Write a sequence for this structure.
């Protein structure tokens, strides 16, 4: 990897496989905090061109005093975060219980089918029908959890049912089904769900065919965000080999006859 172009391709490969999905809903402070923070400032007219320097200085002093006023937004943010954590734990508990109950129902039906008499066979439900049947009881808990964690743009109802069908087909556990929603996966996992394109623009002050060097900076941009890359060389490692005689680190433990072992 010697050129900027090849480095950009390498970075994008690792972005889709290693980076968590970009979720702009998690970047901003809650609107309630921002509105309260902005309401603490007052805007004063600095006057027209014919206003005196005295009134202008007074207005600037009032603005500076408002800016220095003690800001309690960090306390509001702390309690907002604590409330959000409590809400997420509550939604998660309800979702886990709902999924466990749904999978238990599927297991019960499978046991009943296995124990059914050959003379009176039961109608076998295919995985798609089973997924649609058990999705209804857990749909409300799933919807609330995804909305609380702001993941709803990345999981459609059809994708959830398809994933549920996959888990039922391969006899997977409820924990395996929930892993996709409780633990954010790599960006590649959400490409089909969010429908966003993969169009990137390479921006560099130097030619894209230029060789990499320490401190070189380039960016990979999309419409909604960008990856800024700084080139840093790996440290030079000097590995040496030293032979150690196996007999040099042996020892003999002598026990006296009266010592109890």
């Amino acid at each position: 990897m010697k050129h900027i172009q090849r480095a950009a391709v390498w970075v994008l490969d690792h972005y889709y496989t290693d980076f968590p999905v970009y979720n702009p809903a998690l970047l901003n402070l809650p609107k309630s905090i921002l509105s309260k923070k902005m309401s603490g400032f007052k805007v004063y007219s600095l006057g027209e061109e014919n206003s005196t320097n005295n009134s202008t200085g007074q207005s600037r002093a009032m603005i500076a005093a408002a800016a220095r006023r003690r800001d309690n937004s960090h306390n509001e943010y702390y309690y907002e975060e604590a409330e959000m954590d409590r809400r997420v734990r509550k939604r998660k508990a309800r979702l886990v219980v709902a999924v466990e109950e749904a999978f238990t129902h599927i297991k019960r039906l499978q046991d009943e089918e296995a124990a059914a008499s050959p003379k009176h066979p039961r109608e076998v439900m295919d995985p798609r029908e089973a997924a649609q049947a058990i999705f209804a009881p857990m749909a409300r808990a799933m919807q609330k959890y995804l909305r609380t964690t702001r993941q709803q743009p990345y999981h459609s109802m059809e994708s959830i049912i398809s994933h549920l069908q996959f888990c039922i087909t391969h006899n997977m556990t409820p924990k395996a089904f929930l892993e996709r929603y409780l633990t954010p996966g790599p960006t590649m996992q959400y490409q089909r769900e969010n429908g966003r394109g993969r169009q990137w623009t390479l921006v560099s002050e130097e030619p894209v065919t230029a060789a990499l060097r320490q401190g070189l900076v380039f960016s990979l941009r999309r419409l909604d965000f960008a990856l800024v890359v700084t080139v840093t060389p790996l440290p030079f490692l000097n590995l040496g080999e030293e032979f150690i005689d196996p007999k040099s680190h042996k020892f003999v433990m002598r026990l006296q006859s009266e010592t109890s072992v």
Notes: Residues 73-115 form the longest helix (43 residues). The longest strand covers residues 217-221.
